[in-house]
Amino acid sequence: MSLIDVKNVTTVAVIGGGTIGASWSAWFLAQGFTVRCSDPSAAAREAAPGMIAACWPQLSALGASGSADQALARFSVWESHLQAVEGADYVQENAPERLELKQKLLSEIDAALPIDRVIGSSTSGLKASDMQTGMAHPQRLVVAHPFNPPHLVPLVEIVGGKQTSEEAADWAVAFFNAHGKRAIRVRKEVPGHIANRLQAALWKEAAYLVQSGVASVEDVDLATSEGPGLRWAIMGPHLTFHLGGGTGGMAHFYDHLVPAMQTWWADLGTPVMDAALREKLVEGVQQEVGDRSIADLSAERDRKLIAILNVLSPDPQD
Amino acid sequence: MSLIDVKNVTTVAVIGGGTIGASWSAWFLAQGFTVRCSDPSAAAREAAPGMIAACWPQLSALGASGSADQALARFSVWESHLQAVEGADYVQENAPERLELKQKLLSEIDAALPIDRVIGSSTSGLKASDMQTGMAHPQRLVVAHPFNPPHLVPLVEIVGGKQTSEEAADWAVAFFNAHGKRAIRVRKEVPGHIANRLQAALWKEAAYLVQSGVASVEDVDLATSEGPGLRWAIMGPHLTFHLGGGTGGMAHFYDHLVPAMQTWWADLGTPVMDAALREKLVEGVQQEVGDRSIADLSAERDRKLIAILNVLSPDPQD
């Protein structure tokens, strides 16, 4: 079986029209695709076009051509996933994180879709191996996990299940990368894929430092965003340490700096997730944000994210 | 004892003229200070002005006024630390990371310097409590730990020792923040201060994922820089999760998402630092960088760092 050529994809089905589905829809529309979305909730179907329109100025700032209205002319929203997948060349599934529900949905989509089309799931918590058990063509299911917000953050984690073909996983990587995402292959099914594990590892120590009284919530946050965070937007931890090794690179780093690193590892902590820590974190964040609302902060984050993406892009938009 | 007014600082002594000392010197010059540097090595003294001049185009891009030559007219380099601290209003010490050496140096500087002046040490591995034991005025010693490269990265971690006064630590925070750094207070002396612990925590999991075969070195790096890393340049982990909690903020996050987080924590790993991992990391980084040299990569990192700092700045430079 050979899969549809990545270049021939014109129509994408987006299953689920909530926050993640709408954000994915906006991104697919910005790439020029026709998007067929589905959601069993009438309220979600009604809200979806407005959510997409709200994303559009951001996508325009990143180079999307045309107006929101022009994009929405390529968008339709359906009650049933079976209507959405009619004529779809790729399916992005964003149903609630319940295994039985996803299994049923994916089996039905699988039965309706030509066998040369790949199905990606946005799941952050479930395994492709478990979701694909009821599918007649399980080989074409991959996890295609975005990072919030999906229409802005380039990362997509591609994970195959036990029955997924190498071809389907490679196809998904090629498809996303052809359209400006940075898709990576996760080669084993582990909880949290990669990025959420890295976030969890960082926050574990961050919360521990707050709990231990080493620094305030705000100062731990600043110790990230005004220091290593600035570098992590540019390069990952290995490349960072390759440069930390001077002219000897990673080999020098490994031989000379790993001993210090291991001393620090030995001293890292695990916070106790009790009511006192909850209060400390909630109050600490409140002090940090002052009178900025969640909406203000999200807008600020997105504005800065777009600015960073544009300056890091080989072809910056103005 | 009251300390010199932050606004009255005109002259800074930088002890040690190596990579860190030269980078600090360049930054202090860019703030308009007169810089008196010292290094016992004649080769280091000869090299320092060139290293500062090499930093200057970067500092100009971040808004420093005047030419490198004009800045270097305010720079002098001496053999002895006692010469460097003559007339200094603040001292930034960057001697080799050996306790006895730092103790001797700091005691001598302390004896020579008016008592209303603060002394900061760039140490990443030593404690102020240990370094200040021989000083007649130990209350004025703080750790003022920069993040590499010091002339570009805003973070400065301020840590007091057992005998350090609150006043001196507050002074150091105010001094750096008055000149565009983001100084934070680390309230307990822990190995790695904060930022290096956070880096260590992230890399521990990153290296584990490579060792376990979950992903390649390059893909783990991309899973950082194309995902959470982009957000960490904008806000730290707590603020990130405050937004992850939707309209309920950190309280909602804590109540609803910490259970998933704890599942991930339970699955985080510790890499075995053996020869096989060393080879895997060295080869993986080699694949990732291709023919880009360490110098190319450093220049690329610094260029991107400056671009990000400028777009995140409330008053961007062009």
TrEMBL record, chains A, B:
3-hydroxyacyl-CoA dehydrogenase NAD binding domain boundaries: 11-189
**Gene3D superfamilies in the record:** N-(1-d-carboxylethyl)-l-norvaline Dehydrogenase, domain 2 (1.10.1040.10), NAD(P)-binding Rossmann-like Domain (3.40.50.720)
* One GO molecular-function entry: oxidoreductase activity, acting on the CH-OH group of donors, NAD or NADP as acceptor
Q: Where is the 3-hydroxyacyl-CoA dehydrogenase C-terminal domain?
A: 192-256
Q: Please indicate which superkingdom the organism of origin belongs to.
A: Bacteria
Q: Does the keyword Acyltransferase belong to this entry?
A: no
What PANTHER family would the database entry show?
3-HYDROXYACYL-COA DEHYDROGENASE FAMILY PROTEIN, 3-HYDROXYBUTYRYL-COA DEHYDROGENASE
Write down what this protein is called: 3-hydroxyacyl-CoA dehydrogenase
